Amino acid sequence: MIAETGLAALWLAAGLALLQFVLMIVALRSGADVRRAMRSIAVVQGVLTLVAFGMLLIVFARSDMSVALVFENSNSAKPFIYKVAGAWGNHEGSMLMWVTILAAAGAFVALLAHRTSERTTVAALGAQAVLALGFYAFLLIASNPFARLWPAPMDGQGLNPLLQDPGLAFHPPTLYLGYVGLSVAFSFAVGALLTGEVDSRLARAMRPWVLGAWVLLTLGITAGSYWAYYELGWGGYWFWDPVENASLMPWLAATALLHSINVLAARGALKAWTMMLAVIAFSMSMVGTFLVRSGILTSVHAFAIDPQRGTFLLALLAIYVGAAFTLFAVRAPGLKEGARFELVSRESGLVVNNLILSVVLGVVFVGTLYPLFVEAVSGEKLSVGAPYFDAVAGPLALLLAVLVGIGPLIAWRRERRPVFKPLAIPALLGVTALAITIILAPGMRILPRLGFTVGTYLAAASILPLVKRNPLRAPLATWGMVVAHFGIAVALVGMAANAAFSSERLAIAKPGDILTVGPWAVQLADVTPTAGKNWTAIEAELRASRSSGVITLAPESRFYSDPPTETSESAIRTFWNGQLYTVIGKQDVSGAWQLRLWWKPFVTLIWAGGALIAIGGALALLGRLWRLVWRPRRERDWRRERYA
Amino acid sequence: MKPKNQRLVLVASAIVALFAAVLLAMWGLRAQASYFYTPADIAAGKAHDGEGMRLGGMVERGSIKHLPDGVTIRFIVTDGHAQTPVVFRGIPPDLFREGSGAVAEGRLQNGTFVADTILAKHDERYMPPELGNLSAEHKAGKTLEK
Fold first, then answer.
1. B29 vs A295: CB contact, 8 Å cut-off?
2. DSSP secondary structure string for all residues of chain B
3. N or C: which end of chain B has fewer CB within 10 A?
4. Rg value, chain A, Cα
């Protein structure tokens, strides 16, 4: 009964989305007042999808094997948390989660949007309904998560063991929330293009959504990077893999949008450009979903996937993106010209930021899709990997990081004062860092060396907007910007340190043998069998020592029974100045074990930087929401008193 | 700046950025893209020594040999038409085994493929898209032999 309830809720929600779309067309043609009806429909639709998703969670939690999806992806012996998280660790479940978030976001727009005009809100809700409609069709026609099996099997096939990890409970939902948050920006942009009301009011209504989506994307990418780092056991944090690029591309577009929307909100300039970015940002989310869910590109993160579904998603992508760009091409030339600004001004600085981010987005996009293109044209197969992305995107990212230190110091509209004066100290620090790397590590490669230089400079430059004023009186949004920009510096230094100073040791060892890596002497003390709820394993006991003392690590090599799979569980120990990362491999014929050890100085700064960037975004969001909620209320009270 | 000029400058800079992105990408791809070869391609001389590339095929049964250092393996990748010897130093991915598909990244050295990485598969049902046709061909080849 539970699965059927979920399915019925999904059908009803699809019907409501259709109604919402039809209402939008009627309203835009006749000018009828449908705002209240639209709002109620959007809210009910959101609630219905939440019900459907809740039902899916219940069948997974109860291990109801008569549901095909549960049978294929779960097993009654799994720990409870992974039974529930397993609901979105598969294709159908994750698409249901996507559409649930989409509809819930629509409901929140309906409840909260009172800054844009009625026509624009109605048009935006209509656009959101069309988006949802496509994904309802996809779920109901091509990937029904609630399909039953008859007779019901005794037990399920189990979840891929690599997914049996806390990362699964956190990483996909955050990324999806981020992807789908961008859908709201998309719908607002489409709505505003339909009604022609592209102004700073629209930008202020869109901004919290863009900020929120961007924060979640940042968190999702950072978490995913750390998950891959410890789970895959390769010691790498970013592989420039298509699935990773799929999450990076929307992030790049959202970062550009986040900056240009401030120009639109504060100064009413960059109208067409911001609308374009809003369309591109969500298009990139859809491209990302398509790349991940169709499995069309070889990926280290890829799973067995049905290619038919890829075609359906591609069709949806083509329709939405094509329609949005057509609308943009028709309407953008008619938009009123934005406010003016001088060549040296904050606005220009943000344009440069946007241009560089767009170029980075462009080269990542081309590099990711190039293999598909070449194969379609010439039939040749090739892959584009880290060497390409490092060589092309690396220098651009460094250039952007240099400019990040300058931009916030420039005034809006026009800057008459010399901008470079306050940058003297940061620049000096950067040069000092460069000199130190040349003296201490003459053989360092160029990118890490520049990473240290720019990272040190930016760490100092990013806090300048808080200097020479009372930091406690600075708006939260300024604090957010400073924290996020400082986070970029932290991550840069982490990446440079990891690239320049990591030491690796790969060797075989018998119990009692000692291997050295970096400052550590690691002894293989013992290898013992062990077992968990649905796995057995061999566990190594490693005693690692350096001048400050001895610690024990226990990397495992696990064997899961449902489905039969081997995985290696790395053991990592974090110190203030780096991480010791250990993996145990196979036993060879002589009885010795393969061991792989890394000492990675300051590698944790990479994810600490990512977290700081997200925290900065969250601070800015809080600041904006504070003003959104409190300022109108104060103004209303003031008016009421005045006119009472 | 006049509003109209401002718009022109913005549009022009966007177009310049677009071209810059495409040119930069093309330059990077010419220098850095690595082609996917099968042992038959290598036997036909399509691949050059030292060029970064991917090699895909089936790991021949009985071909995996462990070298005395314990962490280097040699094996043979085949596509049913030709064979390429591969040497790899490291811990191979969990699902790497004889008789199943594999994709290795690395370069050719005197006819031997020196692999830097062997692409992991998360899932025993997963087949790299490049190998989709190959295994069908391989199977077809086998039935013909019989």
1. no
2. --HHHHHHHHHHHHHHHHHHHHHHHHHHHHHH-EEEE-HHHHHTT-S-TT--EEEEEEEPTT--EE-TTSSEEEEEEE-SS-EEEEEEES---TT--TTSEEEEEEEEETTEEEEEEE---SSTT---HHHHHHHHHHHHHHHHH-
3. C
4. 27
Partners of A355 on chain B (C-beta within 8 Å) are 13-14, 17
Q: Helix A2-30 and helix A118-137: axis angle, to 10°?
A: 140
Identify the CA nearest to A169 among candidates A97, A85, A94, A86: A85
Is pLDDT at B135 greater than 80 in this prediction? no
User: B1 and A590 in contact by Cβ < 8 A?
Assistant: no
Mean pLDDT of A494-508: 91
| Tokens standing for residue B1 | 């700046």
Q: How confident is the model at residue B121 (pLDDT cuts 50, 70, 90)?
A: low
The distance of B52 to chain A (nearest Cα, Å) reads 10
pLDDT at B144 over 50: no
Query: Which of B10, B26, B96, B131 to mutate: most A Cβ within 10 Å?
Result: B10
B13 and A162 within 8 Å at the Cβ level: the answer is no
pLDDT of residue A155: 75
Helix (H) or strand (E) holding A207: helix A200-231
User: pLDDT averaged over chain A?
Assistant: 87
DSSP string for residues in A245-274: HHHHHHHHHHHHHHHHHHHHHHHS--HHHH
The predicted structure's pLDDT at residue A66? 85
- Provide CB contacts within 8 A for A193, sequence distance 6+: A275, A327, A328, A331, A332
> What's the whole-number average pLDDT of chain B?
76
Displacement of CA A629 from its chain's centroid (Å): 27
8 Å CB contact between A480 and A428: no
Q: Is B132 in CB contact (< 8 Å) with chain A?
A: no
**Beta-carbon separation of B28 and A392 below 8 A:** yes
Say which residue the tokens 């660790």 belong to.
Answer: A89
Say if A516 is an interface residue toward chain B (CB within 8 Å). no
Q: The pTM is what?
A: 0.89
Residues of A in contact with B22 (CB under 8 A): 362, 366
Distances, alpha carbon A495 to alpha carbons A167, A229, A315, A459, A550, in Å: 22, 13, 38, 14, 27
Report the percentage of chain A scoring pLDDT > 90. 44
Burial bucket for residue A245 (CB in 10 Å: 0-12, 13-18, 19+): buried
Q: Does B71 touch chain A (CB under 8 A)?
A: yes
Q: Write the DSSP string, A569-637.
A: E-EEEEETTEEEEEEEEEE-TTS-EEEEEEEEETTHHHHHHHHHHHHHHHHHHHHHHHHHHHHHHHHHH
B25 touches chain A (CB under 8 A): yes
Model confidence at A77, in pLDDT bands (50, 70, 90)? Answer: confident
Mean pLDDT (whole number) for A132-147:
89
The candidate with the shortest Cα–Cα distance to A487, out of A521, A511, A463, is A463
CA distances from A403 to A215, A351, A418 (A): 22, 12, 15
ipTM confidence: 0.77
Q: Give the bridge partners for A595, in sequence order.
A: A507, A584
Residues of chain A with Cβ-Cβ distance to B103 below 8 Å are 298
Joined together, the tokens standing for residue A474 give 């600075």
Cβ–Cβ < 8 Å for A433, A444: no
Pairing of strands B34-37, B53-59: parallel
